[in-house]
Design brief:
The protein is of the alpha/beta class and 241 residues long. It is built from nine helices and nine strands. It has a seven-stranded mixed β-sheet. It has a two-stranded parallel sheet with strand order 6-9. The two termini are 30 Å apart. The structure holds guanosine-5'-triphosphate and magnesium ion. Magnesium ion binds next to loops.
C-alpha cells in the first residue's frame, strides 16, 4: 500500500524541509509513500527550497502553481497528481503533527474518512485562544451542518483515494479551510463513514498565518448556509442518503 501526503504551501520556507523529514520518519515501514508539495508560487522560495533539498528523492514531488492561488484548489491539484491508495492532507506549519500519521493510516483501513480532531475527547490545541475561538465556531457550524463531527475545520485527515474520487470534487475544493466541512458533508450525503481521532494541534513553528479571523467567520458561515441547501437538494434528487 502507498500513501500520498499532500502538503499545500504558501510562504512556508521556514517549515517545509524539516516537516517533510519529520513526516517521512513517521510513515510506518510497511507503507510506500509519496510527498506532494503544492506551492502557490510563494515569494519566499518555498518551491525551490523543496526542489533543492530533495532533488535526489523521487518520493518528494513539488508542484508549482502560478495561477488561481488558493488553499483548497492547491489541495485539489495534489489529489489530482496523487497515485497512492491512501491520501493524507495536512497543513505545512507543524500545526498538524506528523506523529499522528500512523494512527490515521491504521484507522483509515476501517473508516472512509479519519479526521485528526481537536475537539473529540483527548484532542487539544497549544494555542488556547485559538482553541476556544475554534470551539465556539464549531458549535455554530455543527448546528448549521448537522454533520455530527466535532472539528469541522481541522483539515488533517486521511481517505482512500478511490473513495475521495467518488465525491463531487469541484463542489468541494475551492476557497479556504471551509472545504473541509464541505468534504465531510458531501461524504455524509453519500453514506460514507467518518471518525475523529484525538490530536494535539501545535502552534505554527515559523512564518506567518495566512488566515484572517473575521473574514473567515463570514465566509465560512456563508459557505455553511449554502452547503445546507446544496446537500438538501441532493437528498431530494437521490430520494434519501
Ligand atoms: N498552496 C497554498 N497553500 C496555502 C495558501 N494559503 C495557506 N496555505 C497553506 O495552508 C496551510 C494553512 O494556512 P495557515 O496560514 O497556517 O492558516 P491557518 O492554519 O488557518 O492559521 P494559523 O492557525 O494561524 O496558522 C499552511 O500550510 C499554508 O502554507 C494558498 O493560497 N496556497
Ligand atoms: Mg496554520
Amino acid at each position: 500500500m502507498k500513501v500520498s501526503i499532500i502538503l499545500p504551501t504558501y510562504n512556508e520556507a521556514g517549515n517545509i524541509v524539516a516537516l517533510i523529514r519529520e513526516i517521512v520518519l513517521n510513515i510506518p515501514r510497511e507503507w510506500a509513500h509519496e510527498i506532494i508539495v503544492v506551492d502557490d508560487n510563494s515569494p519566499d522560495g518555498t518551491y525551490q527550497m523543496v526542489r533543492d533539498a530533495f532533488s535526489g528523492d523521487p518520493a518528494v514531488v513539488a508542484l508549482l502553481r502560478t495561477m488561481d492561488r488558493g488553499f483548497a484548489r492547491s489541495i485539489r491539484a495534489g489529489i489530482d497528481a496523487a497515485q497512492g491508495d491512501q491520501i493524507i492532507v495536512m497543513d505545512t506549519d507543524f500545526t498538524h503533527d506528523p506523529v499522528e500519521i500512523p494512527r490515521l493510516l491504521h484507522v483509515g483501513v476501517v473508516y472512509d474518512i479519519v479526521s485528526a480532531s481537536r475537539f473529540c475527547s483527548g484532542g487539544n490545541m497549544q494555542d488556547v485562544q485559538h482553541y476556544i475561538a475554534s470551539m465556539l465556531y464549531n458549535w455554530v457550524l455543527r448546528i448549521l451542518l448537522r454533520t455530527q463531527v466535532q472539528d469541522n475545520l481541522g483539515g488533517y485527515f486521511t481517505m482512500r483515494r478511490e473513495k475521495l474520487m467518488q465525491l463531487p470534487l469541484n463542489d468541494i475544493f475551492f476557497g479556504y479551510g471551509e472545504y473541509f466541512f464541505r468534504l465531510v458533508r458531501f461524504a455524509k450525503c453519500q453514506g460514507m463513514t467518518i471518525v475523529e481521532v484525538p490530536a494535539l494541534y501545535r502552534t505554527r513553528h515559523a512564518g506567518k498565518s495566512k488566515s484572517n479571523f473575521l473574514k473567515m467567520l463570514f465566509t465560512y458561515g456563508m459557505a455553511a448556509l449554502r452547503l445546507r441547501r446544496s446537500c438538501a437538494l441532493r437528498k431530494e434528487k437521490t430520494n434519501g442518503w
